[in-house]
Amino acid sequence: MSASAKLPPFDPADPLGLDDLLEPEDLAIRDTVRGWAADRVLPYVADWYEKGELPGIRELARELGGIGALGMSLEGHGCAGASAVQYGLACLELEAADSGIRSLVSVQGSLAMYAIHRFGSEEQKRQWLPRMASGEVIGCFGLTEPDIGSDPGAMRTHAKRDGGDWVLNGRKMWITNGSVAGVAVVWAQTDDGIRGFAVPTDSAGFSAPEIKHKWSLRASVTSELVMDDVRLPADAVLPEVTGLKGPLSCLSHARYGIVWGAMGAARSSFEAALGYARSREQFGRPIGGFQLTQAKLADMAVELHKGMLLAHHLGRRMDAGRLRPEQVSFGKLNNVREAIDICRTARTILGANGISLEYPVMRHATNLESVLTYEGTVEMHQLVLGKALTGIDAFR
């Protein structure tokens, strides 16, 4: 660059110029999802959150299918075949609206659809994936149990052969989409090891009572799955995987979306704090003109955009087929932790208004408390990285 070349202006919304890393198609997908969320979620989500409900979830799912957001990084069977970066950008924009909406999409695409796409038979893929990609059928993913979280190998849900059928019994807990799902991907102990099953939710003996009294992810459907002698045909089992590598690979794919999504919640909170700091006056001038407020805003911006840069880097590695599970743990551990800190700092800038649903900050902060521990707690990701760094397994 010559000394006389004009630098582009500094953009407070993109201080590192990260948009320069994106292709026109990336930007188009991001803007499509952002526009949908602005129209269909943001005007209503505070009321949904306050009431603890997600009305019209089936209609929302069909709309999300219509813009290609369901299973968007998968190929074939009606899926969009988008890049990992494009899927990440969609997760960021959805979680900037609300973590519950991103969870709906993440569980549908990165857990339920991903499991069927990667480990299912061709018949299972044809049966479920096109309707899930369109949003006609909602899916859920049953791994966590009432007494089994971070140690899924100890699950008690089991499936026994009975002639040519399987008989499934057990309980799963904290299942996003469970009460509205048409198919549940359920993991169970068998005589051959842990296996996955595509379970139609209208099967006799299957029920999914919704979990109430949540103070996080309130604009989301969360359920228990109850399976009492659910009889399934032999072809309900996912044939291409046995053991924990099946559900754990699905979780790794979903955690990747969280790396991006958490930065969406952080961005929304930062933008609220920045706008408030520019307009709120104390001692005769906007509070954004005081050094302590500017220090908070600067630190928030640094961590926000470092997190976005990390997400982008991991997305490029995934697109190149080079993303390791340990690197996903790196991203989830850092980005969710920093996102919560950004929300808490934003709350201090807004003062008492920070706890009001007129602003998104407290809603994002409470949602992120769930995101922090689901699909791998802080401690589990620390131990994944600790093992990778030292070569010593400290899980047990």
TrEMBL record:
<keyword id="KW-0809">Transit peptide</keyword>
<dbReference type="InterPro" id="IPR036250">
    <property type="entry name" value="AcylCo_DH-like_C"/>
</dbReference>
<dbReference type="InterPro" id="IPR046373">
    <property type="entry name" value="Acyl-CoA_Oxase/DH_mid-dom_sf"/>
</dbReference>
<dbReference type="Pfam" id="PF02771">
    <property type="entry name" value="Acyl-CoA_dh_N"/>
</dbReference>
<dbReference type="GO" id="GO:0000062">
    <property type="term" value="F:fatty-acyl-CoA binding"/>
</dbReference>
<dbReference type="Pfam" id="PF02770">
    <property type="entry name" value="Acyl-CoA_dh_M"/>
</dbReference>
<dbReference type="GO" id="GO:0033539">
    <property type="term" value="P:fatty acid beta-oxidation using acyl-CoA dehydrogenase"/>
</dbReference>
<dbReference type="GO" id="GO:0050660">
    <property type="term" value="F:flavin adenine dinucleotide binding"/>
</dbReference>
<dbReference type="InterPro" id="IPR013786">
    <property type="entry name" value="AcylCoA_DH/ox_N"/>
</dbReference>
<dbReference type="GO" id="GO:0046949">
    <property type="term" value="P:fatty-acyl-CoA biosynthetic process"/>
</dbReference>
<protein>
    <submittedName>
        <fullName>Acyl-CoA dehydrogenase</fullName>
    </submittedName>
</protein>
<keyword id="KW-0560">Oxidoreductase</keyword>
<keyword id="KW-0274">FAD</keyword>
<dbReference type="InterPro" id="IPR052033">
    <property type="entry name" value="Glutaryl-CoA_DH_mitochondrial"/>
</dbReference>
<dbReference type="Pfam" id="PF00441">
    <property type="entry name" value="Acyl-CoA_dh_1"/>
</dbReference>
<dbReference type="GO" id="GO:0004361">
    <property type="term" value="F:glutaryl-CoA dehydrogenase activity"/>
</dbReference>
<dbReference type="InterPro" id="IPR006091">
    <property type="entry name" value="Acyl-CoA_Oxase/DH_mid-dom"/>
</dbReference>
<comment type="similarity">
    <text>Belongs to the acyl-CoA dehydrogenase family.</text>
</comment>
<dbReference type="InterPro" id="IPR009100">
    <property type="entry name" value="AcylCoA_DH/oxidase_NM_dom_sf"/>
</dbReference>
<dbReference type="InterPro" id="IPR037069">
    <property type="entry name" value="AcylCoA_DH/ox_N_sf"/>
</dbReference>
<feature type="domain" description="Acyl-CoA dehydrogenase/oxidase N-terminal">
    <location>
        <begin position="24"/>
        <end position="136"/>
    </location>
</feature>
<feature type="domain" description="Acyl-CoA oxidase/dehydrogenase middle">
    <location>
        <begin position="140"/>
        <end position="230"/>
    </location>
</feature>
<keyword id="KW-0285">Flavoprotein</keyword>
<dbReference type="InterPro" id="IPR009075">
    <property type="entry name" value="AcylCo_DH/oxidase_C"/>
</dbReference>
<feature type="domain" description="Acyl-CoA dehydrogenase/oxidase C-terminal">
    <location>
        <begin position="243"/>
        <end position="389"/>
    </location>
</feature>
